Structures are given as structure tokens and as C-alpha cells.
Amino acid sequence: KGAIPELTKMRDEGIIKGWGFGVNTPHAIYKALDMSDPDICLLALQYSILDHKQALDKTFPMLDKRGVSAVIGAPLNGGFLAGRNRFNYSPKIPGPMQQKFNAISEVASKHGIDIKTAALQFAEAPSTVSSIIPGARTAEQIKANVASMKVTIPSEFWSELKSKQLIAENAPIPA
């Protein structure tokens, strides 16, 4: 019943190339994967330089096993990593996230890297990820996001983040 079997049938018949869904919580992904066969899914608010453990340890392996690619939505935590005074679209910024932001910012500054640039490149690094949706309100922000993806970040930056346990040891980093 519902759209999922029809979408799968349409894909199998070649009417559409693929189908997917977008969710805000890992539990919703796990449940949807148990009952469907998508090609892609949008993971909003689930993978960022600040918060990525569950995606690396459970979500990405599950998607990889099923051959499902991921689009990362809100890799800047709803603007927080771009300087907005909110976290994941909430005005309340959790203390641990602010502390981690400050620590990553310190390492980024030491290496001459903008934290937003590092965050965007970090979000795109896993092989499971086919694309990211950083969000932008202006043409200037779009241009800045594109420019961020062209910056070469030294491997020493990523190594220091890992050695200080600011990103997971198993986190893929940009090549």
C-alpha cells in the first residue's frame, strides 16, 4: 500500500530513474529501509563536523549495505557553523556543541582555515554521500559555498582534529 511500492515498480519498469526520501532522524531512516528499497535519502541534521558518530557507525554502513546514497542536508547545523546564533534551527545552542565549535575553530584558525569551509568539505567526504545541501539565502552565500569547496585544506588540519578527538577517528576526510 501507498507510494513506496508504486515508486519501486516505476523504477523497475524504467519510468523513473530512482526514488528516495528525506528524514530528520536516524530512526526514521532505519524504519524506512526496513520496509522499502530507495535509491537515495536525504539525511537532514544528521551528519556534520560537530555531530557525526551515529551516521558513521550505523547509518552509513546500513546505506552502503543496501546501495543507497545519501544527500546531507544542513551540514552547517542550520547555519550555526556559518555564524548564525542557532543550532539545528533552534535558538538554543547545546553547551557541548558550542564547546566543540570553539575547539574546532581554534584548530581551524591555527591552520588558516574557515570552519564553514572545513564543515562543508567534511560533509561531502564520505563515499556514501552523493551531494550536500548547505543552504543559502543569497547569491553571495551560494558563491561562498562554491568557493569553500575549492579550497585545499591541509591534511595536518584533519590530523589535528582527529588527534584532539574533535572528529571521529573513522571519519572520512577530504582528499
From TrEMBL:
Domain NADP-dependent oxidoreductase: residue ranges: 5-164
Pfam families: Aldo_ket_red
GO (cellular component) term, any one: cytosol
Xref: InterPro entries: AKR, NAD(P)_OxRdtase_dom_sf, NADP_OxRdtase_dom
Transmembrane segments: none
GO MF assignments: oxidoreductase activity
Protein name: NADP-dependent oxidoreductase domain-containing protein
The species this protein was found in: marine sediment metagenome
Upper classification of the organism: unclassified sequences, metagenomes, ecological metagenomes
